[in-house]
Write a structure and sequence with these properties.
CATH superfamily of the largest domain: EAL domain
Shape: globular
Largest sheet: 8 strands, mixed, barrel
Strand content: 15-25%
Strand order of the largest sheet: 7-8-10-11-12-13-14-15
Number of domains: 2
Helix content: 40-55%
Distance between the termini: 65 Å
Number of strands: 15
Structural class: alpha/beta
CATH class of the largest domain: Alpha Beta
CATH topology of the largest domain: TIM Barrel
Mean pLDDT: 77
Radius of gyration: 23 Å
Length: 426
């Protein structure tokens, strides 16, 4: 062994997790990365053949620097669910995540990158040995830089374990508490199209904060923050922005337009935050039904009497609620009937490219029928082909979202609508 290799072996390796259900992918990747080093440290490849196995590995290895992740494994969106687990459950903002897919139609780059906190997207057909080397080195460099920004000491001996990282919540609390901290935000707007008329019926706002640990969604920010004034200020600020844009879009369109924003389940259980939400909406003087809160299906499944009381309070204040990712989990009709949302957003798994799959056609049809049975509006989220809008229109689905709608339905109207509203807001 050369002196360089001996020195490298003495350092703790960079841990790279490969998650893919194709055995040959693991074999080829292991061959390509054999002997690869970065800054004097070797690369240790951990392997998982499913998202479930990856979760178990990540539970034992909290210092994984990079995950190379397939999208379609035990389910069509197993990879996406794992991304959310890493960012929202493990609260790991440093780990670099690169999606590798052999089925881009199931997870188009234009759908994935804006909505999920990933650090790269590549097709398996484009993955050469040199490309893989470049991806691994560049992502390890980004991981090292992210940890350096947070003052995390780099390992220098074998057996080091990451016991020194500063809690993400403390970092965010410090940054957001500074003057203007909560306002360092990138706000994306995604139109909701009425399928019967091809008109813009609503706008979903997707806020992301610029922080020292990367670009974080509102859900990540609120989940990392403890209950208290800082989290309450974040929620209140997002709603204030939604109210501002609602007034601007009303002026630009000459009619009320529903504005949807995400809300974290824990925020609804905090009485002070709930009162702040209601106060912000009442101060804005918006018409009932203009402001809409997006609530996860997991919240709907696990929420008890406290959620029921919160929903009633919000409705009294004139807000509506949308259940997102409808169909991702098993939710009984009885449960829906207890806490009836105003709208449900079909999970993208039952929307994207649905016309090419008879089984998914049947599932989408049943979900729309289930919603309409309870007089709930249905939204098809993730429409990606020209055939999909027509299918959902025939099925009586009320609204649609996705890149194909922006192109096929009313591109000039959507563009002018957003631009005019933006001018009005400023």
């Amino acid at each position: 062994m050369t002196p360089e290799l001996q020195a490298s072996a003495a350092l703790a390796p960079w841990k790279v997790l490969l998650v893919d259900d194709e055995p040959e992918v693991h074999e080829v990747t292991r061959l390509i990365l054999a002997g690869l080093t970065f800054e004097g440290r070797a690369v240790e490849l951990l392997s998982a053949s499913s998202a479930a196995q990856a979760r178990d590995i990540l539970g034992h290895h909290r210092d994984v620097a990079l995950t190379l992740l397939d999208v379609v494994m035990e389910t069509d969106d197993a990879g996406i669910a794992l991304v959310q687990h890493i960012r929202e459950q493990l609260l790991d903002a440093d780990m670099q995540i690169v999606l590798r897919t052999g089925q881009p139609g199931m997870a188009p780059e234009s759908d994935i990158v804006p909505h999920y906190e990933i650090n790269g997207y590549v097709l398996k057909t484009e993955m050469t040995a040199q490309r893989l080397h470049s991806i691994v080195i560049s992502r390890l460099r980004s991981y090292r830089h992210a940890r350096a920004l947070r003052g995390v000491r780099q390992p220098d001996v074998e057996g080091w374990s990451p016991t020194e990282p500063v809690a993400l919540g403390h970092i965010l609390a410090a940054e957001l508490a500074t003057p203007g901290g909560a306002e360092r935000i990138l706000m994306q707007a995604q139109p909701e199209i009425a399928l019967a008329s091809n008109q813009v019926a609503g706008i979903e706002l997707i806020p992301q904060w610029k922080t020292s640990v990367g670009l974080l969604s509102a859900a990540r920010v609120c989940a990392a923050l403890p209950d208290g004034p800082t989290r309450r200020h974040v929620v209140q600020w997002v709603l204030a922005q939604a109210c501002l844009w609602a007034r601007a879009w009303h002026a630009g369109a000459g009619r009320p337009v529903t504005v949807s924003v995400p809300v974290v389940a824990e925020s609804l259980s905090d009485r002070a935050t709930l009162e702040a939400i209601v106060g912000t909406v009442r101060d804005a003087g918006l018409a009932p039904g203009v402001l809409d809160l997006l609530v996860s299906e997991a919240t709907w499944l696990t929420g008890g009497p406290a959620l029921q009381a919160a929903v009633q309070t919000l409705r009294t204040a004139g807000l509506t609620l949308t259940l997102v990712d409808f169909g991702a989990q098993t939710i009984a009709l009885q449960r829906l009937n207890q806490l009836v949302p105003d709208r449900v957003k079909l999970h993208r798994l039952f929307v994207r490219g649905v016309t090419g799959d008879p089984e998914r056609i049947a599932l989408a049809r049943s979900l729309i029928a289930q919603a309409h049975t309870l007089k709930i509006a249905a939204i098809a989220d993730g429409i990606s082909s020209d055939a999909d809008p027509q299918f959902f229109k025939w099925e009586g689905c009320d609204l649609g979202q996705g890149d194909a709608l922006a192109v096929a339905c009313a591109p000039a109207d959507v563009t002018e609508f957003l631009q005019q509203a933006k001018r009005t807001a400023h």
